[in-house]
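Re: the 785-residue chain
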Amino acid sequence: MGHLQATPELTRGWTSGAATFALGVTACAVFGGFGSPQEEVLQRGAPWIVIEAEDFAVTSPGPPDGARARSFPWASGRAALIRFPLSDETTWKVKGAESGAHELWLRYTLQNARPLAWKLGSEEWTSTECPPTEGLAGQDAWSWQLLGEVELDGVASNLSVKGAPMRLDCFLLRRASGAQGRPEWPPAREASELTTDVRETLAALPARSAPGWFDDAAAIELPPWIEETRVALHTRLSVAWTDKPLFTAAEARAVELGAPAITRFVRAHNGDCFWRSSTGAVADWVEALPEDEPDPVEAMAARARALDLGFIAYLRHGEDGPLAREHPEWTCRDLEGRPIEFAGHPRLCFHSPYGDVVRRRIGELSERGAQGVYLDETHQPLDGCWCDWTARAFTKATGLPMPTSRLAEDPLYRRFLAFSEDSLAAELWRWRTEVREAHPGFVFLVSTNLQPNLMGPRPTLRLGIAGDVIKTEFEKGASPDPLGFLKSHPELGRFDEGTLLAFGWVQSRDGAFGRPAHVWMHALGSEERWKAATAAVVASGCLANLDQAEATMGSSDELAAAFRLGRTMGASLAHARPWRACAIHLPERARNRSMDSPERAWNGNMAPAVAAFSALLEGGYPTSVVSDDQLAEGWLDGVEVLFLPNADGLEPRQRAAVAAFRARGGVVVEESAQELRRACEDRAWPYRLSVPSGVQAHHFRGQNGEHLIALANDPEWIRKPGASAPAEVRKAKVLLRAEQAEVEVLGQEVSKPKKVPGGAEIVLPPFSFGQVIRVRLPKDADTGR
């Protein structure tokens, strides 16, 4: 662990890759590995001491059960402490402070106001109220709070804090000397200096366009074990489980639970492969196996194949400690030249030869019988990599120098972020193309990580066309980041959690051209919650990926009912795709151009998009999402009503696509969710839906042209401890324009339509969690014109 110490001679700027930075004052701080004990701090006489929260000495319970570090681009040391509510008490060593009165400050993010209990040295426990911050991540989310004033005696002491539901970035201890205001830490940076040549080059660069493989990505078809079942079992059987029966019995257990597919770890976080890989480190326990014995991944695939079980290999592809030690020049670097870590392990850059290493490893997995690969998390640092490989690639692609800031208002940095995402998508697609040349049915599940929370600027739905299926998570659309941001800005509007959840799933579905997104969910706590979550996800047109804790996987059957429900609903939706009668443009690139003002970025782009989705969901209307690339390419087949949250922010190709859509009779609604709902009410669609408040309806077209309506009870309660499930859904109705329509519910006939003014009405059977309705209409009635 190195020490970074400021010197009074320097007034501004950072020395890339060196252990010196400048603040214009004599200052000092400690940076180091995640969860490692803090080393001796700085020189005496410094006006402040910074203690990174991730550099704790002791925490109870210890990792991985308690608090742990996670990367955050805008945190002081690029990491902060998460899972802090699970901590009983965490302690840091404080050394180097002189005797006398000091102020103790905390930099943090927090969703709701909470007291924080702390003590320094021999002081008694003190409780300080910490106000909420603007979100839980992002450049403007982190806030300083003065915890209190303490008297120090000049000797080393302990700082202890009790667990609380917040993210801790760092503490700052400074001598008390009157009104000093909030600490100016981390030091502010200036935007990149743009010379005339750089400005001209930036101005001459063409607007981003959809990648060359856009049409190929739109035409992807999925294998039956994904398309026809819509549920899967996710496991995290790590090295710690290799000597336990469940490690080799997981496939059989998955079948017992009713799962049609299983995801399994095939590589440790530290970089060790669970198979005899030709590149990088192989786990010692794998190396010790007899040569004539199949390696563990081959054995996993063989067991799955014998049980007719889909097998997805979960590959840690972004971090690799052994290769980082062997090739330090491949390591991702931050703006200051420091190596970038994730979960305590070094990240390697895909622009370096490491990209080929990952591709070879995926190929080896497919050769051993895996049917797909699960590429999780952010793949590469969200705020960019400043290693030499990336710098050369960026300059070659754009003619521009690397940015010298990470400021949202820096146009050079914004262009760098766009390049970073475009090059990442291209690399992922290259891997897919090359691996599928030998194994055509091999599936790539590509994580879009934070995309559904809409807070930007990366990732966007550009990554949705880099693989076969988007991997997302149950709560991403209603994660604490947008919820905290909205709570601190009530003037931007309120949206219920159930709507935000569903919007996240639908974005991930439609970002991959309507193919079912792989939605990971875990720790729901009861059979009822698992069933409700599975029904909500499958009804949205996605696949529910259920992660049961390994400790109970061998004995508990709490997932079995969810698998049965998901498979039943999923079978009814097999090969169906969204009915795109209404489409909402998701203006991610326009939002990113406004990220210097999060309020403007949200209010002018994301808020109207969410409001439109909410209006359609509440009205029971068909809805879909159109990405920036899809709109620019005119991918609007089947769309009758197009909603534009920010018509003024459209790019030239998008404007041309909208003009062509209008010319062929399409209805365009700009910015107003109320006008969108009125436009839907004016459409002569073949049926309408009437459902109780909170019930979510999603609309699809089957392979034979039939209409499918998937219903789910309100999912808002699922993540709330102590909340009860909503009442059984009764008196949901389908209103048909054609009396001769045929209606089924999960394969069972319902009562005949009852004549009503304007058509016929069918009252649907009651349900608790989810239901799929099939509607077959006469050809002359199947129109919305």
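Residues 210 and 489 are 34 Å apart (CA to CA).
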